[in-house]
Amino acid sequence: EAGEKAGGFTSLNQSFFSRLAQKAPGMTRSQDAMNTVLNHLRSGVYAKEAQKLWDQGDRIVEHYAALARVINHGTGFGSWRAPDIVKGINAFFSPRYLSSRVQLFTDPFIEFARGNNAAGRLASKNLVSFVATNVAILELLNQTGMIEVSWNPLDSDFGKAKIGNQRIDPWAGT
Q: For residues 57 and 104, what is the distance between their CA atoms, to the nearest angstrom?
């Protein structure tokens, strides 16, 4: 797979549905194009943040690895693989994406606790952006009447868009 040749940076989760979708005409080229764009964006963010670290005189390799981890988690590529979680769990969903959403919430705490301040700041920025964007979009659509949103944390539909009987969870299950 193209993603695996790139060191696993963008490899697809090989679930039943992703294998089925890959058989659609033109899908492989479309997928490769999207992977190229995402890799370019990720590498650009990494280069900018790594340059800041270098300019500050930080030469600790783990700090650079932490930056890469945080960027991966922020872009939907979690550190946990399906075999690391439970065998066969990736049959119907993407466990790496799901794990990235959990890690998006935990990264600021973990990186600051490890002393990786640059990675901790980037992870905090990712988390605030993720939450603020989702809240803004949900509330904007709620105010226009296009969707209903419950902001009651005791409600099972908390933070979800509701259109009739259909619910949309922009938080990816987190």
A: 27
Chain segment 98-122, per-residue pLDDT in tens: 889 899 999 999 999 999 999 999 9
Residue 131, class by beta-carbon neighbours within 10 Å (0-12 exposed, 13-18 middle, 19+ buried)? middle
pLDDT by residue (tens digit) across 9-34?
A: 444 445 566 677 778 887 878 888 98
Residue whose token pair is 């992703």: 18
| CB environment 97-124: b (16+ within 10 A), e (fewer) | ebbbbebbbebbebbeeeebebbbbbbb
Strands 161-163 and 166-168: antiparallel
Q: What is the pTM of this model?
A: 0.77
DSSP 3-state percent helix, strand, coil across the chain (nearest 5)? 65, 5, 30
- Nearest to residue 36, comparing CAs of 18, 12, 10, 7? 10
Report how far residue 71's alpha carbon sits from residue 67's, in angstroms, rounded to the nearest whole number. Answer: 6
